[in-house]
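Polyprenyl synthetase family protein
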Amino acid sequence: MSVETILTEAVTVTDAALERLLPGPDAQPHSIHRAMRHSTFAGGKRLRPALVLEAARMVAGNLPEGVEECGAAIEMLHTYSLIHDDLPALDNDDLRRGKPTCHVVFGEAIAILAGDALQTTAFQTLAHLKCPATSAVQILREVAIAVNTGVGADGLAPGMIGGQVVDIESEGKKPTAELVEAIHRSKTGALITVSIVAGGLYAGASAEDVARLRTFGEKLGLAFQIVDDVLDLTQDSAQLGKTAGKDAATDKATWPAVYGLEKSIADADAMIREAYDAIAPWGEAAEPLKTIARFLVERKH
């Protein structure tokens, strides 16, 4: 399967699920539902749902019924994070996926609430997944940890919100290798990793399978963000679909700021090769996930 085929299928089945799961634009109150849909249907590759689908397909040997709703829930969480990241209090961006950001169109208050509602709807969706109850509980737990602050009952783990906090608080400070890796594994990597783990769990993955999927996800998530850092320095806003050069302008802790462009590109490539090794036992069934991984380090936007 080509990456275009994989991502086109992910867009088709995920968008159909999102249409079913999200309130329509005429549902009251109009403003928040239209804001939720504005950001959710603004485009995007549906990368995280694609990872859910292909991990489930690899583990099960076919696409399990209802797994697209798991992918749609994770896409809601991703979209909520983008809405909040773009707010003036955080990254203060006016452009996302080539379109005006949620707060630009609907105002800050509605944008904040739209993000909150997408997060809540995501967990409501996860609570009704069509997989065995034990698997659904595991997925809920994994997703909750991945989007949280990084501290929980089980100790420290990468968490998206925690990564965002560290990212904000590190602005203007000299970046270190340890700081940049911690931010990337949490802010971006955690949601990518849990997409793969959740897909595997939905399909009945064993503990050993989950460990391999987690390793693949961690390597892929870090490589993905390194490439994002590189693109922010090397592409323009039209190519990126968001404001280019903001990392350097705001003194963000990035991989190129620590290692330079050439080593950053090499590091991303090395991590993808390590990710491949983690899922090698699945043989040809792993090819779609490998195809997505390769696409992520070769993309230009």
